[in-house]
Amino acid sequence: MPHDSLPMATVLPPILLSCIAVAALVISDFRDVRAGRYLFKPLAAFAFVWLALSLDAGDTAYGRWLLAALLFCLLGDLLLMPDSERAFLAGLAAFLCGHLLFAVAFFQLPGNTLGLAISVLPAMILLVTVWRWLIPHVGREMKLPVILYILVISAMLLCAGLTLGQAPACLIIIGAWGFACSDLAVARRQFILPASRLNGVWGTPLYFLSQMVLASSLALV
Known about the structure:
The protein has 221 residues and is an all-alpha fold. The chain has helices at 8-30, 34-54, 61-79, 85-107, 113-134, 140-161, 169-192, 198-216. It is globular and about 45 Å long.
């Protein structure tokens, strides 16, 4: 059942934590303050899990799958903090699981084939654009994991489209697309312009905002 009224005392603390931690994380990354990264990134990730728990994620099948997805994203955030290829691969695997679990969560809601049909073209445009932009820069040993990741993201976007017509659909679709687009900043940093600090200026806020939006969709289930 959708929450008829949400006490601000319940949802405001995780929202405030997210705003403060994300702002501090962006500043820390831009100034290359590693201690700030290790402090504020876990706090920013904890905020979206906290929001989901505040909205009783465990009470519905949708909420439980969504919470599992958010927890894997939190794990991915932690794994991506070190600057190493092994950590990147582990983080990639965690986020891949997160995308898959989001897709499963979206499947818990009644499906709308019109929403799926509407989603096909934009998802295909994103897939082809990212493929042509990114794959030439990816080394041979990383191509298979990256291609699999791109395909899973596309599938998640299609599953988000399936929720069209349901109460939380707007938040789900916005959150899913924001999450997918924020991955472009990670890819750009990892494979194309690793020295650019602008990746985190837009990618980090977009990612955490998208996770908060997805978590807030629980208020409408």
